[in-house]
Design goal:
The complex is a heterodimer. By secondary structure, chain A is mainly alpha-helical. Chain A has 8 helices and no strands. In chain A, about 70% of the residues lie in helices and about 0% in strands. Classes of the chains: A mainly alpha, B mainly alpha.
């Protein structure tokens, strides 16, 4: 039973990942990543990490993917050009990826890690539950937890600063854009000065 | 299931993400492929956490998720800023810093 679930999750995760790379339309890539994330959450459940699986679905497949869908719809899915700056890039990149995979597999499987063989130790009840993870976060990893919260705050402020519309830097472009929206009729010359005064 | 399966799957997902970063040009898809690579790392962390019977690896995975969320927020903010300035969202056209 566990094997069937693992292979279902693995096929979903791998198919989602390949679809992300393969689809030409970015919108479909975003939807494929959602499939990938749900499959990965299933694999996390198989590994007895309930809280990480729930966070994966709520934070990633929920919040982050909504952000991606919004930005993709806002920017518009432009098709990529077929122009290759490096000749043969589309052939060389999968070869390099295959080499990376072989190298990682040799490095992981060739190491004589104790954890590699067998099913792992017997785990206590409540392993990976929200209570256990919350206790760890609040006691042992308190500094990392606070640093993560500070990082999230900085990222939120930075995103607002980056994506905010700066009319002061480019007043002519902004005015021209507004003029176009009003059926091509530009505003009165006195209008920008009143706006600047406000 | 033994840990090898999870680790090989994690390596495969990481390689797929790396190939995506190499061959795609759209900024949004490159960000998506970075997510794939981070999630492959998460899978390895959680697999080791299970196989060692130690929950610390799951906390690492959560912190990786936080960092990934920050990266997404900043990256999408940059994409929106580029789009507002009418710059192309193609990494081959954004080569002013190449020297």
């Amino acid at each position: 039973m566990v094997e069937v679930c693992f292979f279902l999750g693995a096929i979903g995760a791998l198919g989602g990942a390949i679809a992300v790379v393969g689809f030409r339309n970015p919108f479909y890539s975003v939807l494929a990543l959602i499939v990938h994330l749900f499959s990965l959450a299933g694999l996390f459940l198989l590994l007895h990490s309930e809280f990480v699986a729930a966070a994966q679905i709520v934070v990633y497949a929920g919040a982050v993917m909504v952000l991606y869908v919004f930005v993709t719809a806002y920017v518009g899915g432009a098709e990529e050009s077929a122009w290759e700056p490096i000749p043969g890039q589309r052939l060389l990149a999968p070869l390099m990826g295959a080499a990376l995979f072989v190298e990682l597999s040799i490095a992981v499987l060739g190491s004589s890690l104790k954890a590699l063989n067998g099913e792992g130790p017997e785990i206590p009840l409540g392993f990976g539950s929200p209570a256990a993870i919350g206790r760890l976060l609040m006691e042992r990893f308190m500094v990392a937890f606070e640093a993560a919260s500070m990082l999230l705050l900085l990222a939120a402020v930075g995103a607002v600063v980056l994506a905010s519309r700066r009319d002061r830097d480019h007043p002519p472009a902004a005015e021209a854009e507004r003029g176009e929206r009003q059926d091509g009729i530009l505003r009165e010359p006195s209008e920008p000065s009143t706006r600047a005064a406000v | 299931m033994a840990a090898e399966w999870y680790l090989v799957l994690s390596a495969l997902l990481f390689a797929v993400g790396a190939v995506g970063v190499l061959i795609r040009r759209s900024l949004i898809v490159i960000l998506l492929c970075l997510e794939l690579m981070l999630n492959a790392g998460n899978l390895a962390l959680v697999a080791f956490s299970r196989m060692l019977g130690d929950q610390d690896g799951q906390v690492f995975a959560l912190i990786v998720m936080v960092v990934a969320a920050c990266e997404v927020v900043i990256g999408l903010g940059l994409i929106v800023a580029l789009y507002r300035r009418r710059l192309p969202l193609d990494v081959d056209d954004l080569r002013e810093l190449r020297g």
